[in-house]
Fold Methyltransferase.
Amino acid sequence: MAFGRGAKMDGRRPSSSSSSFCTTTTVVVFVALCLVGAWMMTSSTVFPLEISSNKKSVVKQQPAPVNFGASEDAASGNAGESSGKFEDTDNNDTTVPEESNNKEAPEEEKFTENMAEKPEEKEQEPPREREENKDMFDDANGKSEGRSDDVKNDNDDGDKSEEKKDDEITNESGDEKPDGERKDDREEKSEGDATQEEQPQIEEKVEESGEKKEQSSNSNEVFPDGAESELLKESNTQNGSFPTQAAESKNEKEVRASSKSSGDESSYSWKLCNSSASTDYIPCLDNEKAIKKLRSTKHYEHRERHCPEEPPTCLVPLPEGYKRPIEWPKSRDKVWYSNVPHTRLAEYKGHQNWVKVSGDYLLFPGGGTQFKNGALHYIDTIQQALPNIAWGKRSRVILDVGCGVASFGGYMFDRDVLTMSFAPKDEHEAQVQFALERGIPAISAVMGTKRLPYPSRVFDVIHCARCRVPWHIEGGMLLLELNRLLRPGGYFVWSATPVYQKLPEDVEIWNAMSALTKSMCWKMVNKTKDKLNQVGMAIYQKPMDNNCYEKRSENNPPLCKDSDDADAAWNVPLEACMHKLPAGPTVRGAKWPESWPQRLEKTPFWLNGSQVGVYGKPANEDFEADNAHWKRVVSKSYVNGMGIDWSKVRNVMDMRAVYGGFAAALRDQKVWVMNIVPIDSPDTLPIIYERGLFGMYHDWCESFSTYPRTYDLLHADHLFSKLKKRCKLMAVFAEVDRVLRPQGKLIVRDTADTINELESMAKSLKWEVRMTYTKGNEGLLCVEKSMWRPKELEAST
Ligand SMILES: *[C@@H]1O[C@H](CO)[C@@H](O)[C@H](O)[C@H]1NC(C)=O
Ligand SMILES: *[C@@H]1O[C@H](CO)[C@@H](O)[C@H](O)[C@H]1NC(C)=O
Ligand SMILES: *[C@@H]1O[C@H](CO)[C@@H](O)[C@H](O)[C@H]1NC(C)=O
Ligand SMILES: *[C@@H]1O[C@H](CO)[C@@H](O)[C@H](O)[C@H]1NC(C)=O
Ligand SMILES: *[C@@H]1O[C@H](CO)[C@@H](O)[C@H](O)[C@H]1NC(C)=O
Ligand SMILES: *[C@@H]1O[C@H](CO)[C@@H](O)[C@H](O)[C@H]1NC(C)=O
C-alpha cells in the first residue's frame, strides 16, 4: 500500500499524544482544515513549503506539495464577498439573510437587538402541547412511554402578553450570569383557573428572579398557556400576592422533593474530570487506556470510539476566559479565541491565512484552507460542471468527508444545502471543535474499520476535497462505504491532486481510482477545474438500478450477502462489498426525493398506509400527525412561550428524533438540528434524510462524538425515562452537561418522576430552571446550563 493508511494517518493526525508528534502536529495543523478521515490526507498543497520541509518525515507520503500559498493570502479578499451573505439553510434563505447581510461588527449588535426584540413583539403564547397526537406520541415514545403530549394542554390561550419579555430578554441575552446562584424560586403556579401556569410567565419570572420553579400543577390545566392577564398576575403573584397558591405549590414541591430520594439535589456530588484532554474531553475518543491497548492503528483504530466501561459522571472544565459564542452568521468568519484556544492551530494557520488570531478572535478568512479564493466559487464551479446537481433543490443533504474546519459546509448554507461534515478527532487540530464553534455542523468520526453511523442511501452528494483518503486500497473498502451512504443516482465529488496533477504517484492513484469506480458502476460525469482555486475535481454518479451490477464480467467488488442489512451501522465492521440497489417502485431509493423545500413536508413516497408508524397509525398518517404536532409545540411553546432567545441558538440537537418533526418545525429559525435516532428506537433516520434533514444513530449510554460545549439547545422527548432503565441517569446528565454550551438550554418532555429527578440534578449543577411543569404523569422541563464548575477534581478519568 503505497498509501499505507497507517502512515498517512500518523503523518497527519498524530497528535494527540506525544510530544514527538510535534512536528506532526504542525503538519497536521496545516492540513487540518480539510483532512478528514482517517485516511484522508489532505493534499500537501496546503502546507507552506517551509513547513513541509520540517515535517517531511512525517508527511512523506503526501504528494508533492502544491502551492497555493500565495493565493491563500489573496483569499482574504474574497472573504469579504462571501461574507456578505450569510444565510442559514434551515431558514428560508432569503429571509434571514437580509438582516445579516451587513455584517460589520456593529451589525452584530444590531442583529442581536433585533432578535431580542422579536420575542417581545411576538406574543407569548404559552406552550401548549397537543393532545391530539397523544396516541401517536405515546406510541412513539414507545412504546411505553407516556404520553406526554397529551398531558399538556389543549388550551390555547388566548392572549398573549408581550410585555415582560423585554426585560427578560434583555437580561437573558445578556451575558452570562453567574451560574452558581440560584434564586429562589418562586413559584408560580397558578393553579386555579387561571392557573395554568403559563409558561411564559414562568419563564419570565425565572429570568428575573433567577430560578423558577415550578409549578406544580396539579391542576387540570394543560400545559401552560399564557394569557396576558395571567402573566401579569403571575408577576404580581410572585411576591406573594397570592400567598395561598404560592404556598401551596411550594409545599407541594417540597413534599415531592423530599419524597423522592433520588431526586434530592444534595445527593449528587459533582467533580471535575481529571483527563489529560482537559477542557476538550470526549470520553469515547479520549480513552487513553483503551487506545494504548490497540494492537494496530493502521486503520485509524485510535481515532475510533472506545467508550469507557463505566460512563463518566464528571464534569468537563471550562477553558479560561470562555465567553458566550459569537452568533451565526458572524461566527462563520470569527470565533472567540478563548473558547477554542488552540495555539498551534492559530499559529500555523496564521501563516497560511486560513485561520488567524486577531485580538480576541480567530478569523477564518476566505472560507478556510481548501479554498483560497472562496468556497462559494468552488461550490458554484461544481454546479457549472454538473447543472443537475442543483444545489438546494435536487441536492439538499450532503456528506463532507474530512471537513477540516468545515468551511465548505459553512458556505453550503448559502445554497440551502445541509452538510454533515466529519473529521477524526485530533487534540491538536481540533478541527471539528472549530467547525462547531463557528456554528457549522460536524462530528468527530473517522473512516476506520467500522461503518459510519448513518443509514444507507441517504446522502444526495458526498464531497471530499483535498482528499487523501486511500480510496483505492484494500478492495476499495472505504469508497464502498461511501457507496453505501450515497443515494442511488447521487454524486461523489472528488477534488484531490490525482484528479489534476501529473506526478507519478498521482497518476498511479488516478488509474487505480478509475478502475475501482468503473468496477463499482460509478460513472464519471465530469472532470473539471476550478481555476481560481487551483483545484480540479472529478464527479461520479452512483447507478440508479442493478443493471450495471448484473452486467459486470467480474463480481468485484462483490455484492454484499442478502442477509447484510445496509442500514445497520452501529459498530458494524466495514466490508468491501456493494449492496444491491432497491428494486420495485415503492421502495426507498427507487426514485429521487422531491426537490427541496417540498421534500420537507412531503410524506416520503415509500411510506404508505400498509406500514405501521411509530405511533401506531398507518405510517403516512403517523408522519403527518407528527409533523403537525411539532409545528404546534414549537411555535406555541418553544419559540414563543419559553423565553428562549433564538438569536443565540444555532447548534441544536434533537436527542430522540422520530420523524424529524421537531427539526422541521424549526426551519424558520437560523439553526440546524442534529437528529439523533437512538439505537434502541425505531429506525426512522432514513425518513429524516428523505425530507432533507440530517442526523445519525447514537447510544445515549455512551458519550456523543462531539467536543464539549458545542450545542446551544438539546431537546429530549421521552428519552431519559427510557434510558434510565439501561444506564445511570447521572452519567447521561453529565454527558448533556458536556455537550451543552454554558447558557445553552435543555428542553425535556418526559414522565413526571423523570422530570423531577432531572430538575433536581439540574439544580445540583447550579443550572437555572426556566420552567417546569408537570401534570398527571407527564411533565415538561426547560433548564439553562450555567458557568458553574465544581472545584474538586475526580481521582482519575
Ligand atoms: C422564503 O421566504 C420567501 C420570502 O420571504 C417566501 O416567499 C417563501 O415562501 C419562503 N420559503 C419558505 C420555504 O419558507
Ligand atoms: C437585568 O436584570 C438586572 C438585575 O436583575 C436589572 O438591574 C436590569 O435592569 C435588567 N436589565 C434589563 C434590560 O431589564
Ligand atoms: C416582594 O416582597 C418583598 C417584601 O414583601 C419586597 O421587598 C420585594 O420587593 C417584592 N418583590 C416584588 C417583585 O414585588
Ligand atoms: C463539464 O464541466 C464544464 C465546466 O466546468 C462544462 O463546460 C462541460 O459542459 C461539462 N461537461 C459535461 C459533459 O457536462
Ligand atoms: C407500501 O409500502 C410497502 C413497503 O415499502 C410496499 O411493499 C407496498 O407495496 C406499498 N404498498 C403500496 C400500496 O404502495
Ligand atoms: C488526576 O489524574 C492524575 C493522573 O491520572 C493523577 O496523578 C492525579 O492524582 C489526579 N488528580 C486527583 C486530584 O486525583
Observations:
- The CA atoms of residues 88 and 513 lie 35 Å apart.
- The domain at 1-103+369-438+458-581 is CATH 3.40.50.150 (Rossmann fold).
- The two ends are 37 Å apart (CA to CA).
- The first helix runs from residue 5 to 12.
